[in-house]
Amino acid sequence: MTTRLIYFAWVRERIGKPEEDVELPAGIETVADLLRWLKSRGEEYEHALQYPDVIRVAINQEHVEHREKIAGAREIALFPPMTGG
Amino acid sequence: MSGAPTVRIQREDFDIAAEIAKLTEGRADIGAVVSFSGLCRDEQGRLSALELEHYPGMAEAEIGRIAAEAVQRWPLQGLTVIHRHGKIAPGENIVLVVAASAHRQAAFEAANFLMDFLKSRAPFWKKEHRVDGSDGGWVEAKDADDQAAARWTQSQAD
Fold first, then answer.
1. Cβ separation of B58 and A61 shorter than 8 Å?
2. Smallest Cα distance from A61 to chain B, Å
3. Domain ranges in chain B?
4. Close Cβ partners of B125 (under 8 Å, ≥ 6 residues apart)
5. Contact check, Cβ <8 Å, B126/A83
6. pLDDT tens-digit series, residues B74-107
7. Which of B119, B7, B115 has the alpha carbon at shortest distance from B57?
8. Which CATH number fits the domain B6-157, given the four candidates 3.90.1170.40, 3.40.50.10280, 3.40.50.300, 3.40.50.12780?
9. Domain range spanning residue A47?
10. Number of domains in chain A
11. What ipTM does the predicted assembly reach?
12. Model confidence over A26-61: pLDDT tens digits?
């Protein structure tokens, strides 16, 4: 299944693109698995996801924890802690 | 509260008086209106602008969820939240919360609650542009903002 990944702020700048569609390999079950896999895709990903603990994640536009399962996710967004308001 | 809270994400500025009037017009049951507006600071003359990036779709949805929770927790007669995005100059408005209620306490608390959660959960990110033309980088999230949001769940547990 194709999953759309969306990046914001410095995660977007470091990865070098605002979004991409990926085919997730078997065995990627949770958000933490996804971050680990993405990090291995090249140095721009390594740079963006160097400290995975600080990365915030939303699945289908709702905040989730890193232990959340990603089965059925159409859209997964990765971003730094928010600074609105 | 009759009707859903108003949530708007927009590039253009807002008119605070007009937004308050929209909540109170033609009503005699509102005894208190609290409005909070957040403005762009120049950081002692260093800053030429803030650039606000947001997650379209989720920004509306997340603020809508926070507003719906405020409506559950306090007896409100009206609630409006407007958050701007794009390039904002020092002195300009960034965010507006207007809470209307029969009595002041609910309006004060709901506006405060909205701002605490907007800061830590609404998907917006600020980038600084400096007067000298350099890129000041992304504003770092403050632990104090997370703590401010956490106190609303703690006080519920007490």
1. yes
2. 5
3. 6-157
4. A8, A9, A79, A80, A82, A83, A84, B52, B53, B54, B138, B139
5. yes
6. 999 999 999 999 999 999 999 999 999 999 999 9
7. B7
8. 3.90.1170.40
9. 2-79
10. 1
11. 0.96
12. 999 999 999 999 999 999 999 999 999 999 999 999
